[in-house]
């Protein structure tokens, strides 16, 4: 892109692909920019675009239901907000190949194809920015890449999915079931009709992939990171976690050490005095740990049209100011490293059983066979003996060692439900 001075350069033409909640919020922010703004909305694409037209968009903006028209237009920057892999991947690749710059909030696409698209942007002299892809309006991508560039980061962790956090805090505060909390999240607009990506960890995993590449300089593919659902968590688990001085959050963590990337997305017990415990509702939190600068925290609203739109427009302004010159963003020298989820932690195991003699002995024997020590056993009175919940906590052990023991335990005939396992992160955060 030409490096003309801001005083003489014409405004860059911006095309928006996707005029949903975020796309319309981006357009609104651009419409409210002063006349001297370096950005000008020029094109809007959406399927059945006529039903999307709004009076507050300038008359000279071209509306289209044909993405080909927009990609072939004179737009300088394409904002991709349709989501998903296809056709977004093809559209972004074609825009970059044509020398345009791209801004996207598409975490799934950047997690899977980020390095490839970054290289394509650099080859053709454009930029690709995706600050809105992680933690919405929290500028964590920019902070890790620019603000902490002088440090050597070795760990990133946090609460990366507002839907899960809303559901978990609803269960904790009101004692409701997972299903009830999920329905409430849908009514409040935090959960999609199909919440799979959120509650089963795939959304947070895509974000963790991006943070690993930007922060830890490690190229990771989403399928390499194990993730666990929050669907099995109930009010009883908060009762027991509180007895242990903890609460439960969906924790995404990645650590670079010993020539590996250790990474996982899973519900976990975190101490009540941890910053993680105080992130409630739909808020997000990212903690980074560096060799020299120690721990840095970034927190704020991770979802919503306006907060995400602010991050998108911030990326647009960075490109318009020529901050990235002819180099694609981000310029990250990242390594392809082996990936493992084999963290060592203390563990919380919750069993629901048909009560009879010998249950604890059978579980203890299976754990001992795999050299795992029990720390404590917790059992509240008053539950039905045909579906009796109780908790076993374990001393420090690797995840793979525990999983081997759990394969044996799942074969035991007194189990009513699949056992729930969660790490207890009293020392790791």
Strand-pairing-aware structural class: alpha/beta
Q: Portion of residues in helices?
A: 25-40%
CATH architecture of the largest domain: 2-Layer Sandwich
In the sheet with the most strands, the strands line up as 3-2-1-4-5-6
Rg, Å, rounded: 24 Å
Principal-axis shape equals elongated
- Report the CATH superfamily of the largest domain: Dihydrodipicolinate Reductase, domain 2
Report the portion of residues in β strands: 25-35%
- Figure out the total of helices: 13
Poorly predicted sequence stretches spanning 5 or more consecutive residues? 325-330
By CATH reckoning, the class of the largest domain would read Alpha Beta
Number of strands: 18
Largest sheet: 6 strands, parallel
Arithmetic mean pLDDT: 92
CATH structural fold name of the largest domain = Dihydrodipicolinate Reductase, domain 2
- Distance from N terminus to C terminus (CA atoms, Å) equals 42 Å
What can you see in these coordinates?
With 429 residues, the chain is of the alpha/beta class. The chain folds into three domains: 141 residues, NAD(P)-binding Rossmann-like Domain (Rossmann fold, 3-Layer(aba) Sandwich); 162 residues, Dihydrodipicolinate Reductase, domain 2; 81 residues, Alpha-Beta Plaits. The chain contains 13 helices and 18 strands. The two termini are 42 Å apart. About 1% of the residues have low confidence.
Topology:
Layout: E1 12-17, H1 21-31, E2 39-45, E3 62-64, H2 67-71, E4 77-80, H3 88-97, E5 101-104, H4 107-123, E6 128-129, H5 140-147, E7 153-159, H6 162-174, H7 178-187, H8 196-199, H9 202-216, E8 218-219, H10 235-243, E9 246-257, E10 260-271, E11 283-290, E12 294-301, H11 305-320, E13 335-336, E14 339-340, E15 344-353, H12 359-369, E16 374-378, E17 388-398, H13 399-409, E18 420-424
Parallel strand pairs: 1-2, 1-4, 2-3, 4-5, 5-6, 8-13, 10-14
Antiparallel strand pairs: 7-9, 7-11, 9-10, 11-12, 15-17, 15-18, 16-17
Helix pairs in contact: 1-11, 3-4, 4-9, 6-7, 12-13
């Amino acid at each position: 892109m030409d490096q003309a001075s801001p005083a003489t350069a014409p405004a860059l033409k911006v095309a928006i692909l996707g005029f949903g909640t975020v796309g319309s919020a981006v357009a609104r922010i651009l419409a409210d920019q002063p006349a001297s703004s370096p950005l000008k909305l020029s094109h809007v694409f959406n399927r059945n675009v006529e039903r999307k037209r709004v009076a507050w968009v300038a008359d000279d903006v071209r509306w289209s239901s044909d993405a080909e028209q927009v990609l072939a237009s004179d737009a300088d920057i394409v904002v991709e907000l349709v989501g998903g892999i296809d056709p977004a991947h093809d559209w972004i690749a074609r825009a970059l190949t044509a020398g345009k710059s791209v801004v996207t909030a598409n975490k799934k696409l950047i997690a899977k194809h980020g390095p490839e698209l970054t290289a394509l942007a650099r080859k053709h002299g454009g930029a690709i920015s995706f600050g809105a892809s992680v933690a919405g309006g929290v500028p964590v991508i920019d902070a890790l890449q620019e603000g902490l560039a002088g440090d050597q980061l070795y760990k990133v962790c946090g609460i990366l999915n507002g839907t899960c956090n809303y559901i978990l805090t609803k269960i904790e505060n009101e004692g409701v079931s997972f299903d009830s909390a999920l329905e409430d999240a849908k009514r409040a607009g935090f959960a999609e009709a199909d919440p799979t990506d959120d509650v089963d960890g795939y959304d947070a995993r895509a974000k963790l992939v991006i943070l690993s590449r930007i922060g830890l300089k490690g190229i990771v593919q989403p399928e390499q990171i194990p993730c666990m659902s929050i669907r099995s968590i109930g009010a009883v688990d908060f009762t027991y976690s509180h007895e242990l001085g903890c609460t439960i959050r969906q924790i995404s963590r990645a650590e670079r050490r010993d020539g590996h990337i250790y990474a996982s997305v899973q519900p976990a017990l975190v101490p009540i005095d941890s910053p993680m415990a105080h992130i409630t509702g739909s808020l997000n939190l990212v903690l980074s740990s560096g060799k020299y600068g120690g721990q840095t925290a970034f927190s704020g609203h991770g979802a919503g049209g306006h907060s995400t739109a602010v991050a998108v427009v911030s990326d647009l302004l960075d490109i318009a100011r020529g901050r990235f010159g002819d180099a694609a963003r981000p310029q990250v020298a990242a390594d392809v490293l082996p990936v493992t989820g084999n963290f060592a932690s203390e563990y919380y195991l919750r069993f629901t059983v048909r009560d009879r003699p010998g249950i604890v002995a059978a579980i203890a024997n299976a754990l001992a066979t795999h050299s795992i020590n029990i720390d404590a056993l917790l059992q509240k009175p008053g539950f039905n003996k045909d579906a009796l919940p109780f908790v076993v906590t374990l001393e420090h052990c690797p995840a793979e060692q525990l999983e081997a023991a759990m394969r044996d335990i799942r074969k035991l005939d007194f189990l009513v439900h699949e056992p729930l396992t969660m790490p207890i992160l009293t020392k790791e955060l």
